Amino acid sequence: MAAPSSYQLIAWRRGFKAPPFLKKKMPLKPIFAVWAVLSVLAYAPLCLLPARDLSVVIAEGKVELPTAPVAPLSSKENKGCSMVSVKAPGVRGGTLKEPDAIIYNPDSDISKVRGYASLLIYAWAENDKVQFAVCNPTKYMILPGKAALLWQVWRSGAKDGKL
User: Fold this and answer.
1) Which residues lie below 8 Å from residue 49, measured CB to CB, with a gap of 6+?
2) Residues 6+ positions from 8 with CB-CB distance below 8 Å
3) What pTM did the predictor assign?
4) pLDDT: is 11 or 34 the higher one?
5) Are 155 and 67 a contacting pair, CB within 8 Å?
6) Where do the domains of the chain lie, and which CATH numbers do they carry?
7) What is the residue-averaged pLDDT of the chain?
8) What DSSP letter does each residue of 134-161 carry, written as one string?
9) Residue 104, SS3?
10) What is the pLDDT of residue 34?
11) How far apart are CA 156 and CA 100, in angstroms?
12) pLDDT band for position 63 (50/70/90)?
């Protein structure tokens, strides 16, 4: 017979009717009792979240990063970033009241791609598009290899999964 869950044991301790297999006296180790109480307390606040705190994905995709040489930020042309723009219908940009959040990750181990150990990647939302900048903070020109990012735009404040 399977051991009772922490919820069953807590309910039993609080005076609820015990199932037949729990009617026998079972030794309850103190560490298990502490764990059971802490696990209930840890997850209880998750049930109290209001519906407006849900988040939904507005847009997602994959973007290829530029392979053209990236000049240093300190150069006289001051072009130290290569820009990539991606269409993302429904994305809102430029508002501090309800900003959209951009989550992005490389589609593979980017540390093994030439140049990306030194380059910085930034992302921000604009109306109906997402901008990515690959910037070179060093004082030398860098020729990056081929890499791609997987990205998503999230918006909080959804009610029942709808905005």
Assistant:
1) none
2) 19, 22
3) 0.62
4) 34
5) no
6) 6-48 (no CATH), 52-158 (2.60.40)
7) 76
8) EE--SSS-B-----EEEEEEEEEEEBTT
9) strand
10) 62
11) 8
12) very high
